[in-house]
Amino acid sequence: MARKKIREYDSKRLLKQHLNKLVGIQIDIRSAQITESTDFNGLVESEPWLATEELVVKPDMLFGKRGKSGLVGLNLNLAQVASFIKDRLGEEVEIGGCRGPVTAFIVEPFVPHSHEFYLSVISDRLGCSISFSDCGGIEIEDNWDKDLQNHSPNRATSMNQLPSNSGGGSATRRLLGQPAGSKNIVI
């Protein structure tokens, strides 16, 4: 079945927009995407938090192992983010045997933390496959065996069309351990 990956910036934007619209879950996601054509002054005007908060910056590309490759800047101010991006924009990187230039970055508020989680949603004609792991961050590739997976069928999909290891239902709240009435999730 054909799949198309999307950038982290776009996935977070879609989560913020549609979780609220579909199930009333509001998430405070602040992120900015920076490419070669980004006007920093205009960006700060539309996203004023960029000038006042400590930030994290990383390539917004369709590959992993960014942290292990030295491509993540943590706890930076806006001037440091601009310098970090300037030094790496267009740089050729090789990860997992694939080579190409870095063309986009995502910038978000830096949140000090001791633990990261991993969440993936794959939507196809049968429904959504949701994967969750409490071994997120730079170690996710080494911990795929700890990844919890669930398939939630589309309303029009009958249960006999699903793979035998799938289970229907409200997987997101179950995987995240969220009580039924819970509304706030930080991503």
Automatic annotation (TrEMBL):
InterPro entries, per the entry: Citrate_synth_N
Residue numbers spanned by region Disordered = 146-187
Alphabetical list of SUPFAM superfamilies matching this protein: Glutathione synthetase ATP-binding domain-like
A Pfam family cross-referenced in the UniProt record is Citrate_synth_N
Where do the ATP-citrate synthase ATP-grasp domain residues begin and end?
2-148
Which residue ranges have biased composition labelled Polar residues?
A: 150-165
Q: Record's superkingdom?
A: Eukaryota
Q: What is this protein called?
A: ATP-citrate synthase alpha chain protein 1
Which organism does this sequence originate in? Answer: Platanthera guangdongensis
